[in-house]
TrEMBL record:
Keyword hit for Hydrolase: no
This protein's UniProt keywords: Disulfide bond, Signal
Keyword Hydrolase: no
Name this protein carries in UniProt: LamG-like jellyroll fold domain-containing protein
Gene3D superfamilies the record matches: 2.60.120.200
Pfam families in alphabetical order: Laminin_G_3
LamG-like jellyroll fold domain: residues covered: 261-388
Length: 533
């Protein structure tokens, strides 16, 4: 059993010491001795592995009750490989959310490759208690049993490489124990090195095959796996002419979530490659007292209000999604792009006072500066976020809600407004303030259009060293995958982008059976055909 960080880096380790976060665990080296049905002595290993968290998160997987007998019965369930609640004699199994099967060795997937049931699917990152069980076995008065358990820790470059190193050390610990603690028996495992993959482009209704390869210094058997990195989300498209969103509070007045003092603003945006000049992702305020985040007219750089019109960071007009974060503290202002610090001002910018409420896709007041492109996931905080919190929210390019804390992000209770912009239909968007029942809305102005995303319909399979990517008929778009090579103890990974290009299908001839009384409508797709009536 082992624990590892839920995010790539840990705030305390990374910010204070510049270190990756370690992984740690326990390994059963030798269990109790029992007699089998024939009287032969055998050694038990783990007979079940369960876990629980620090609080109830919808599945009853939390600390057993204390100072009451029901807690003892809950512990008994855990030790037999069942959910703690309801308590014994009721015994409900842990169920693999991917296969639907009952399991007594839970979370037996591989976090290095993302394959199988791994932690984070049922519950978000948080405290974990490991329950490693062995038995049953009997002991009479005066009997002894020798049980060997190892405690292992490892640290590498990030959360997953630390875990890979931990698995490697586990192999060494087993080898060391099985050799009778002979130092000469220890061999250091070397992780396989996967060969980088080129991106693949195919036409609609075609199938892509990719040959995978990797090297392993130890000559271990290598297995490949593939992880689908594709998330779906709806978003709003703005035409750069008159499309925008005006946010309002429950009373119908324009909402001003950015107040005096420290604040942070975050948004995902995709600027059109056809755009140019001034345009704003978000804005609030009035002349002389305002905030906005968008592009400048000269130099084409990101600007953040009148106090910081030239951040020196290029505004990306590349038809790609980017994560923008502006964080203002009492002494400095920070601009982050795609999870990384891009610029610092050296002083605090002013905060907006009065004027227009928060707008999405347009400048404050009577100015236009309409955004040309797509916007999603707009959020503001009543405080400055740390660098590790911003990196956690970026989440490697996958959307992470700001409304729930993670190990590296702890400002959910400071969210002053959050607009996912994922409704997918209608002319109103819904906003949320942390721990508040007030209803916030955004009125879509102009003709801003929704893009409703469907899951990337591509079947990715691996047979031996051959990866096959088979899109559904008539599907086109983009998809991203992580391919990993593992020797059973450590792994390395590489990414792959798949682009499926749309193809205009030619109209197909068909037989048309008709009677004299029928009316035949000739359309553009069939006007060249001949029909007998």
């Amino acid at each position: 059993g082992y624990v590892y960080n839920g995010n790539t880096f840990d705030e305390t380790f990374f910010d204070n010491y510049g270190m990756a976060v370690p992984a740690a665990g326990y390994v059963f080296l030798e269990g109790p001795k029992v007699a089998d049905a024939d009287g032969n002595i055998d050694t038990l290993g783990m007979t079940s592995f369960t876990y629980f968290g620090s609080e109830v998160l919808g599945d009853g997987i939390s600390d057993p009750d204390v100072k009451v007998y029901s807690g003892t019965l809950q512990w008994f369930n855990l030790m037999e490989g069942f959910l703690p609640r309801p308590e014994y004699p009721t015994q409900l199994p842990f169920v693999d959310p991917l296969t639907g099967t009952a399991e007594k060795f839970v979370l037996a997937g591989d976090p290095l490759t993302g394959a199988g049931w791994i932690d984070g699917i049922v519950m978000p990152p948080g405290d974990r208690r490991l329950v490693m069980n062995t038995g049953p076995f009997q002991m009479a008065l005066g009997d002894t049993q020798d049980i060997f358990v190892g405690t292992i820790g490892a640290i590498a470059e990030d959360n997953l490489t630390s875990l890979g190193k931990l698995i490697e050390f586990t192999k060494l610990a087993r080898t060391f124990h099985n050799s009778g603690y002979d130092n000469k028996a220890i061999e250091l495992n070397v992780a396989p090195i996967i060969t980088a993959l080129n991106d693949v482009t195919i036409n609609e209704d075609e199938t892509a095959t990719v040959t995978l390869s990797a090297t392993d210094e130890d000559g271990d058997v290598i297995t490949f796996s593939v992880k689908d990195n594709n998330a779906t989300r709806n978003y709003l498209n703005f035409d750069g002419v008159d499309d925008w969103v005006q946010t309002k509070n429950e009373g119908g007045d324009e909402d001003h979530p950015i107040n005096d003092g420290d604040f942070t603003v975050s948004a995902w945006a995709k600027a059109s490659s056809l755009s140019s000049g001034l345009m704003e992702i978000v804005s609030q305020g009035q002349a002389g007292s305002n905030f906005y985040l968008g592009s400048s007219n000269t130099g084409d750089v990101i600007r953040a209000g009148d106090d910081w019109e030239d951040t020196g960071v290029t505004f990306p007009r590349d038809d790609q999604w980017h994560h923008y974060v502006l964080s203002r503290s009492s002494s400095n202002t920070y601009l982050y792009l795609d999870g990384s610090l891009a610029a610092t001002k050296g002083s605090a910018i002013e905060y907006p006072d009065g004027g227009s409420g928060l707008r999405i896709g347009r400048q404050y007041g009577t100015a236009g500066e309409y955004f040309y492109g797509s916007i999603s996931e707009v959020a503001t905080w009543g405080g400055a976020l740390s660098a590790s919190e911003v990196a956690s929210l970026y989440n490697g390019g996958s959307i992470l809600s700001p409304m729930r804390d993670t190990i590296s992000y702890s400002s959910a209770d400071d969210v002053s407004i959050y607009y996912p912009l994922n409704e997918g239909t209608g002319s109103t968007v819904q906003g949320t303030e942390y721990n508040s029942s007030e209803v916030f809305t955004g009125e879509i102005k102009g003709g801003a259009r929704w893009t409703v995303m469907v899951a990337q319909r591509v079947t990715a399979t691996i047979s031996g060293s051959m990866l096959t990517l088979a899109p559904d008929p008539n599907w086109y778009g983009e998809a991203n995958y992580t391919v990993s090579a593992s020797d059973g103890y450590a792994a390395s990974s590489t990414s792959l982008n798949l682009t499926v290009t749309a193809v205009n299908d030619a109209p197909a001839a068909f037989d048309w059976v008709s009677t004299a009384s029928d009316t035949i409508k000739i359309s553009q797709s069939n006007l060249t055909e001949e029909y007998e009536l």
